[in-house]
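Hi F.,

I've been meaning to write this up properly since the lab meeting, where we talked about keeping a consistent format for the predictions we share between groups. The idea is simple: the sequence comes first, exactly as it goes in, then the structure tokens exactly as they come out, then a line or two of notes. No screenshots and no reformatting. I'm using this chain as the first example so we have something concrete to point to.
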Amino acid sequence: MLIRLLRPRLRPHLRSIALVGALQIAQAVTALTLPTLNARLVDDGVLKGDAGLVLRTGGLMLAGTAAQVLCSATVGFLAARTALAVGRDLRAAVFTRVQGFSAREVGRFGVSSLVTRTVNDVQQVQTVVLMALTGLAAAPMMCAGGVVMALRQDARLSALLLVALPALLGVLGTLVRRARVPAQGVQEGVDAVNRVLREQIAGVRVIRAFARDGHERTRFAAANTGLMEMSVRASRLMMTLFPAGMLVANVSSVAVLWIGGHLVDEGSTGIGSLIAFLNYFALIFGSALLATFTFLAAPRAQVSARRVQEVLDDSPTPAPAVSVVRAPSWATSQATALSSGSRHPGLLEFEDVRVRYPGAELPVLRGVSLVARPGETTAVVGSTGAGKTTLLSLVPRLLTPEGGAVRVGGVDVAELPPKALVRAVGLVPQRPYLFSGTVASNLRYGDPDATDADLWHALEIAQARDFVAALPDGLNTVVGQGGGSLSGGQRQRITIARALVARPAIYLFDDPFSALDPVTEHALRAALADETRGATVLIVAQRVPSVRHADRIVVLDEGRVAGEGGHRELMATCGVYREIVLSQLTEEEAA
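Output, unedited:
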């Protein structure tokens, strides 16, 4: 999975990778040459008193060391740049894919998990790429070259490698295999901590209102402790690696010195050769340890790569990019006509729509058909869980129906280019959300080219002009993430103004007056009626007074259309609607 994920991301960097490989070859050759030069310097120079040879050989060793440092620095720079570019591309790919997800895909993965995959998992993959480029590529060459050069120094001492290397590889291989399970647990633990923390920060007022601080501390402590235990388990394996490797290396070095000392005493080998052999021994073991550190990081990177690839493989349905490319010519021409204002761009049709959430036994919408026309206000009412918000979410493709069709201007939304759909539809969600920035930057989500005059006009219609003008910097007042510095009613009105700035052909209002007082709601509904004249308005509301004067009221009950018509007509013919109305109004008020 790791190779599959990295292959297309490494392809643009093949030149840098090739240069890294060439420099590492040069670095390895230099490193393997230095011990032999050192042996010559000791045996033929120092012991024989040849000062010229010492100077010449010492100069070569200094030049080789300088070249090795230069190669190492260049390799580090190129490897870091390549790994960071791979991380950047992966984050961009995940972000782009998540932006195309519907609520169904987001719900399946979970917001906290998507954040972890975009940040932490990509970081793990980026780290292993850096380790592989800086160390893993040169390790086999250093090991093989070290063995060959050690044999050239002394074949009898090299017999120790037949015992030491298998022992080292056995210990390191066992640690690497045992690291896979903790790696999976660490990433899942990060998900759990992010999920609990996100819930607690978002719901801090509810927690305090119900005095559940102790319970939430216990929840967080459990998730945090679980992550700590898995991290300690993984770290213990990592920390065991170096001492275990060094134990084998040091025992082997003692054996080399013991046997080599006798050989030097017998005159069978020189002191320089023994020193060179020890250096090659250190190079072999050091390369093996360096490669093992990379292999030890690989299980966690493999887990992270699988999690990232799951997001990239989960194609949204329909995928926006594919829709633009593969849409048939007739759909493209209709989309063009839609965006240019012809073919009744405000005509909104639902035909036999069926929607089922993942894991649900029954569909939330079953065979829903209705038409919302330009110049009319169509209201959707129903009990909690009837599918009202789900119905609205189908229009901007936040959800995808498993059956039926949703059409805007006669074109199925699955075949509309995203930009054309965005221009045609303005959504006011049930939960108003503002982004970190200013009031103006949030309003310009509706139209990036809107002037300040356009913004003030939209705020006036949304009954938000007065409180925005009273803010310290007016339109330039900074709004915190989520709009936490504003009240619920203020956020709701700014969200309505954001949709008005776009001037779409279709307005989708999902319970837009829930946080407003009756006086403000009445003024807002009157202003909206004038502003949206000629457009299609589809509104979901819980309060009957908010929709009783709509041109058409559609009643949803358990995912089906239970009635359709005007207020008086439904009071006489639809028991579900009558029950909803009388739960809020008296008979006299409902008449």
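Notes:
Residues 213-266 form the longest helix (54 residues).
Residues 318-337 have pLDDT under 50 and may be disordered.

If this format works for you, I'll send the rest the same way.

G.
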